Amino acid sequence: MARFLVRRLLQVIPTLAALSVLLFVWLRALPGGPEVALLGERATPEARAAIRDRMGLDEPVLVQYAAYMRDLLRLDLGTSTQTRQPVLEEFLLRFPGTVELALAAMVIAVGVGIPLGYFAARRRGSLLDNLTVGGSMVGICTPIFFLAFVLKWVFGENLGWLPTIGRQSPGADATHITNMYVLDGILTQEWDAAWDAFLHLMLPAIAVASIPFAIIVRMTRASVLEVLGEDYVRTAEAKGLTHRVIRGRHVLRNALLPVVTAIGVLAGALLSGAVLTETVFAFNGIGLFVYNAIRNSDYPVLMGFIMFIAFTFVLVNLLVDISYSVIDPRVRVR
Asked: Is residue 188 classed exposed, middle or buried when 0-12, 13-18 and 19+ CB atoms within 10 A define those classes?
């Protein structure tokens, strides 16, 4: 296992290095150069000269890249032109909200999607199977932002069952430790605050979970159907093993291998794809912050977001590789 982890960690370095080069080139390819991108077109010549001097833009390209990498390794992502605060501080303030949203969406997608896909495969051709296949197709084809508006109108504005704006009710008496509001309410035993944050989380989480849920259902169903036709399953049935043993040891364990890979990719995508959903629900996470950065051409935030999400993708996929190797030990020796 240790050698397997070392190999995976070594594969991470070239990926992040290549991305850093792309970001470095992108910033310098912007119209007017980095100084205009960071300060705006109306910046004074003195301000542009000052930032050129601070960023060493008159130095050779390799020297500039070395300075750029030094700042990245120090976690210095620059200063937001919107808030005038360090980008890293802004991310650490808002990122827990997006993580909470992504975790809730993934719990819905995995907790419902895998069992539903499994039972649909076991009852192939039944009404449940047909509804599952048809519903998953609708889920994949429906844009998340459209579903978000529908959920907001139906369950929030029309029925009034769930709140539709923010992460917590205004004026809520809540202590924030991790900035994951539901978790904070549980840790501090402020149950009213935790329940209020949970209700605010439901609609955005359902909207974000829609496409991952549909994909997981379809992949689980297809994978279980494939495994059910394998010789070792028929052999296990011929030996008289119980259905519980066959399902757990032979069917589910082997069927989950491709599903786990898909979950890893989807989990990383959830963190980067919550921009529109957070905007619809005014959910104060990193997605809403990045949306405002796009509108205001806040390039330090955009660059930091790209690098931050890339690192998250790499970390999530590393965890997927580890879980994959636990499910199928043969992966470690390939």
From this structure: middle
Supply the pLDDT for residue 243: 62
CA distances from 271 to 13, 262, 278, 290 (A): 21, 15, 11, 12
Six-digit token pair at 304? Answer: 């930091």
Q: Model-level pTM?
A: 0.75
CATH class of 94-333: mainly alpha
Give yes or no for residue 329 having a pLDDT over 60: no
CA angle 36, 38, 42 (to 5 degrees): 45
Where are the domains positioned within the chain? 2-73, 94-333
Residue 64 tokens, joined: 């500039």
Distance CA 209, CA 211 (A): 6
Residue with tokens 């119209």: 31
Predicted confidence (pLDDT) per residue in 208-231, tens digit: 888 888 888 888 888 877 776 666
Give the C-alpha separation, 33 to 14, whole Å: 27
- pLDDT of 333 higher than 60: no
